[in-house]
Amino acid sequence: MFKNSEKFLTAFNRIEKELRSMMINKKDLGFSKMVKILRNSNSLVKRYSEDLLEFAELRNAIVHNKVELTHAIAEPHDSIVDKIETIQEELAHPKKVIPLFNKKVHYFDEQDSLADMLHTIHEKGHTKFPVYANQTFMGLLTQKGITNWLAENNGEGSFSFNDILLKHVLPFEEKDNVLFISASTSIYAAVELYKEYASKGKRLEALLITRNGSQEEKLAGIITTSDILEIP
Q1: How far is C-alpha 90 from the geometric centre of its chain's CA atoms?
Q2: DSSP H helical segments within the chain, as ranges?
Q3: CB contact set of 165 (below 8 Å; sequence gap of 6+)
Q4: C-alpha dist (Å) from residue 65 to 32, 71, 106, 180
Q5: Nearest to 96 by CA among 190, 214, 178, 218
Q6: I want to staple 115 with a disulfide (CB 3.0 to 4.6 A). Which of 1, 143, 158, 162 is the partner?
């Protein structure tokens, strides 16, 4: 039976190895310094940086305060061991947006009518739709864009939604409200993209997922604001 201190140190050493592999330069830096550098560019390290720095202090206490080679002065609590092992596993095998958000994405052509989109909103409950011109991505249309179009055309008399093409509505949508990401993007990197937009006073409506993050590729999934809120 391994002691908690042994389990802790094993997980700590594995994390240290993962961090060192992430460093492009200065691979000889200490654990805490690597955490402080990597949290500026790595979403997972940023997410767990405070825990990792605390682990470094505990590791030093265990290693440097041993009363003998086989006996640590203190044994970490079970909850600490569980936490460091969970983080180690997450760093070694980060959860990706695919397959977690692998789903059929409803999209439209710009020549489709607004009536078609409204029918899908009513039937499916979806509110964000990629719009294409043949196979070229033109933008993401949301309820806000539709509302903006309705407000602008409220005094135009009677009209049929069947006669309104999506290419007429799309200019009323907010610009730069969507990003494309690759299927290998970690779920926490996706969360950071939403936070970055919010920090600039902008609203990111969705992340569209393709194999390599290219607009020309087939859609593999979509992440919306409500999806982001459900990520623990």
Answers
A1: 14
A2: 4-22, 31-38, 43-64, 78-92, 97-100, 114-124, 143-152, 166-169, 187-199, 225-229
A3: 110, 111, 112, 113, 114
A4: 19, 10, 60, 50
A5: 190
A6: 162
Looking at residue 25, the DSSP 8-state letter turns out to be: S
d(CA 63, CA 150): 67
**In the structure encoding, which two tokens stand for residue 38, read together?**
């990597």
C-alpha closest to that of 79 among 18, 7, 14, 13: 7
pLDDT in tens, 49-101: 999 999 999 998 888 765 555 555 678 999 999 999 999 999 999 999 999 99
- Write the CB contacts of 94 (distance below 8 Å, at least 6 apart in sequence): 44, 186, 187, 188
pLDDT in tens, 16-51: 999 999 998 877 899 999 999 999 999 999 999 999
Phi/psi of residue 221, nearest 5 degrees: 175, 175
Cβ contact 11:84 at 8 Å? yes
Q: Are residues 208 and 106 in contact, defined by beta-carbon separation less than 8 angstroms?
A: no
The full set of domain ranges for the chain reads 4-91, 100-229
Chain-centroid distance of CA 7 in Å reads 30
- What is 100-229's CATH topology? CBS-domain (3.10.580)
| Cβ partners under 8 Å of residue 148, min gap 6 | 172, 173
Residue type (1 letter), 161: F
